[in-house]
Amino acid sequence: QQDVIRTAFIYKPADVALVGPSTVLTGDSGAGQPFSIAREPLAQGFKKAGATNADAFLVVANHWKSKGADGSPLYPGDAEDTSSPAADQGAFNETRVHQAADASAFASSRAAAIGTNRIFMVGDFNAYTHEDPAEALAAAGYTDLGSAFDPSEQTYSFDGLEGSLDHVFANPAALAMVTGADVWQINAQEAV
After folding, report:
1. Closest by alpha carbon to 73, among 97, 54, 51, 56?
2. Strand pairing partners for 18?
3. For 109, which of 19, 101, 141, 145 is 20 to 30 Å away at the CA?
4. DSSP for 147-192?
5. Torsion-angle region of residue 20: left (phi > 0), alpha (psi -120 to 50) or beta?
6. ∠ CA(158), CA(164), CA(170), 5° rounding?
């Protein structure tokens, strides 16, 4: 088996109900395509329990390619090259930028399919807020809720450094629904 890590949703049925089927982006997983070396995004529509489908919002779970140089680059900007502008963004940076574009297009398509314009992109993007992949989502109109509502919190600790590789991004219509945000520390900072 090539890839055992999968994205999934955990939710409280007393609070939200499903709208439409869950859908995985499968069209970009062929050889040389952005998700051939990463988990495909998983989209699911939700609504407040008891509400109508007109109140739906879409959530797209992501787990993009890691920063480790553990494979052959897909794009010229993927290799760790200290002379490039993306030098400090790890390996596979250009792949993650392509994943941002494809996941955003997928999210828009799935949102339209369930009749909503409210989209949340969640998960492990393997990119800090001001790295190219996250900036690509910002350019597409998404706001990083952690940076906007809880900027002092971090989601990731590695080699004594802390930052946020895990994010919740909201498009403008979804952002209007948000009243606050907090980091749930399920990726505990463990001792060596």
Report:
1. 97
2. 46
3. 145
4. HHH-TT--SEEETTEEE--EEEEE-HHHHTT---------S-----
5. left
6. 160
DSSP string, 109-136: HHHHHTT---EEEEEE-SS-TTSHHHHH
Q: For the segment 150-160, what is each residue's pLDDT rounded down to a tens digit? A: 887 877 776 77
Rg (C-alpha) for the chain, rounded Å, is: 17
For residue 141, give both structure tokens. Answer: 């109109």
Q: What is the pLDDT of residue 1?
A: 42
Task: Supply the pTM of this predicted model.
Answer: 0.89
DSSP code at position 77: G
User: Which position has the token pair 């990726």?
Assistant: 187
Distance of CA 171 to the CA centre of its chain: 12
Interior angle at CA 170, CA 168 and CA 176, nearest 5: 130
Distance CA 86, CA 92 (A): 10
